[in-house]
Amino acid sequence: MINPNEDGNEDMETKSTPSSLSDVAKANQARKQPGSGALGVGLEARSIHAWFGDKLVLRDISLDFWSGTVTALIGPSGCGKSTFIRTLNRMHEFIPGAAMAGEVLLNGQDIYEQGTDVTKIRLKVGMVFQKPNPFPSMTIADNVLAGLKLAQLKSENKDDLLEECLERAGLWNEVKDRLNAYGGSLSGGQQQRLCIARSLAVRPEVLLMDEPCSALDPGSTLKIEETIQHLSSSMTIIIVTHNMQQAARVSDYTGFFLSDGGPGELVEVGPTSEIFSRPKDIRTENYVTGRFG
Amino acid sequence: MSTPTLKPTRPWKLTPKQRGLIVLNLVIASALSYLIVLLTPMKGKLAYLSIFFIATIVINFAENYFKRGLAAAKDSIATSFAAAGLIVAVVPIFSILFTIFERGRAGLNFGLFLHDMKLNGPNDPLNQGGLLHALIGSGIMVGIALLISLPIGILTAIYLTEIKGIYSRPIKFLVQAMSGVPSIVAGLFILSAIVFPITKSSSGLMGGFALAILMIPTIARTSEEVLLLIPNDLREAGVALGGTQWRTISLIVVPAAKSGLITATILGLARVAGETAPLVLVSGGGDAVNTNPFQSPMGSLPFYIWKGFTFGTTESIARSWAGIFVLLSLIFILFIAARTLSGSRSSK
Tens digit of pLDDT for each residue in B107-133? Predict the structure, then answer.
């Protein structure tokens, strides 16, 4: 159940005063100091390079993601943000011609190490895609529990899990009376929250979100942002977004990616409040203040 | 603020006056073609039709040119050709259906589905004997073909679209080449590869094998098209949830493509249900009901039709037309079933 909490109200106000981006970010920062309540470093990207065919699209990205934090990745289109997060759960290799170099450490273990079971990695590092993609042949309930079937996991009590995941995704109240309807019958925003619920059912430690709100209206976007804030207490969230207000609203840390026609690079990363109020790099400042991009 | 007197209108539709003009054009064209045929040495139905067609184009062109300009006039020519193309395509289909119904009617009776031709010759009156043996034979052989080609066809399509292994290109080529194989070649292949060297006799099983050779490429190609339509998002979502490739295919991709795969299967069935040549070669044909596909010749609907025509008497030909009617009805029912099954999902 989603109660419009203080954060939510604050978000609503920010919308009318766009100048206070950094204030919101600061408020978020106050809510969660880096390291406070963190469970230690969860996911570490070490010197990630990525290629499509012969074309280098990402150069030397190193980023740490603390458990229990939300990291936003911002930057103009085509700078490699999506490619980067796809290297974090080994979805990158799903594209023909893809190659990569570097290490991704999950709890200290390189997920690209020879002999690693890639399906286990994707269970721990879940993903929500840009376009809502519920499975069309399945009901709402089946969609949420699809991960258990796909990964052949056992669950003691499926009904409880179903309710818990839909609840955490902020969708339970809207769908509890029609769990046997098809996923495609929901609105776009509901479908996306269904996809979030679906990724939660396999209990990932990290959730990657690739522009999860870009196809949604502001109301649905707000709901998803509330969902992200609820989830962030229990897992690591990495969200790619083109909406800088969204980055300021939901994230604890922000990384700015940029490509000057060549491969994408990480220009700057830091606490969200700093990135939006006093970025160290002039390019970041130009981008977050809307002077380009 | 809409007043209650406001009526919904469709300003983009033709007005009665415009409809009248279209009819007038057609009437003028008919009159013109009648006159020209009357006054010139050109005679016959074909002359009427072609002059009528040309006259319609000219009249429509002139009308549109003076009212709306050259572009609209050109547009009217294209419309006339499209309409003519539609008529040329549709008339033969209805003509065939009508002929089959007309001629098949005489031989149709309920006994057709209860008796075989064991005790009756093709010259016997139409109320004796029946095509039960042909119906059962066709059912068994097409069923065998389906059992073989459904898994092979769909797995081939999955290999081509999902697994995309290194042999994809040659296999794609082979499947395309196979779909062009004349049906008699499939029959000859089974005859020389299995019947002559091994079984030394024709049987329903051999007929099923020959039909399967024809059915596999149809199912594989149609299924491939269907699977290609499944958005990649779904595959990625399945894999991202920790599914292996096979589980993603079997739990998500194939169920999402289910209605299309059913259509593919029914298209394959319809493709082989009317095959005659390979069955003449490898399953022989019998006049008695034979439910054992492993032994002795087995009748089939196409064979029954063919046999009736080769006999050439009034009764035997009437039997054949009735057989054609039954066969066509079955295929028609299959197509309706395919439409219904594939339509039922999208309505949800």
Answer: 888 888 888 888 887 778 887 888 899
**Cα nearest neighbour of B252 on chain A:** A135
Q: Do B234 and A146 touch (CB under 8 A)?
A: no
- Neighboring chain A residues of B255 at a CB cutoff of 8 Å: 135, 137-138
Helices (H), chain A: 6-16, 21-31, 81-88, 118-124, 140-150, 158-168, 172-175, 188-200, 218-231, 244-250, 272-277, 282-288
pTM comes to: 0.79
List the single residue in A120, A136, A198 with the smallest CB-CB distance to B241.
A198
Cβ of B258 within 8 Å of Cβ of A137? The answer is: yes
Bridge partner residues of A255 (DSSP): A73, A269
Interface check A292 vs B, CB under 8 A: no
Q: Report the C-alpha gap between A274 and A279 in whole angstroms.
A: 6
Which residues in chain A touch residue B258, judged by CB atoms under 8 angstroms apart?
137
For the structural domain made of B132-346, what CATH number should be given? 1.10.3720.10
pLDDT of residue B327: 93
Dist. CA B30–CA A23, nearest whole Å:
81
Q: For A151, which residue in chain B has the nearest alpha carbon?
A: B243
Residue of B241, B250, B258 best to disrupt the A interface, most CBs of A under 10 A: B241
- Residues B93-119 have a mean pLDDT of 88
CATH architecture of the domain A8-32+41-288 equals 3-Layer(aba) Sandwich (3.40)
ipTM of the complex: 0.80
What is the Cα–Cα distance from A290 to A285, expressed in whole angstroms? 8
User: A202–B252: do the CB atoms touch at under 8 Å?
Assistant: no
Domain boundaries, chain B: 17-86, 132-346
Least confident of B9-13, B57-61, B157-161, B226-230: B9-13
Q: How many CB atoms lie within 10 A of CB B231?
A: 13
Which pair of tokens denotes residue B268?
A: 């394959």
Neighbours of A81 (CB within 10 A): 29
Residue ranges per domain, chain A?
8-32+41-288
Contacts of A147 in chain B (CB under 8 A): 241-243
pLDDT grade for A237, boundaries at 50, 70 and 90: very high
Which 8-state DSSP code applies to residue A275? H
The answer to whether the Cβ–Cβ distance between A119 and B236 falls below 8 Å is no
**β A98-106/A236-240 pair status:** unpaired
- CB contacts of A152 in chain B (<8 Å) are 247
Min Cα distance A4 → chain B (Å) is 30
The rounded percent of chain B whose pLDDT value lies above 70 is 97
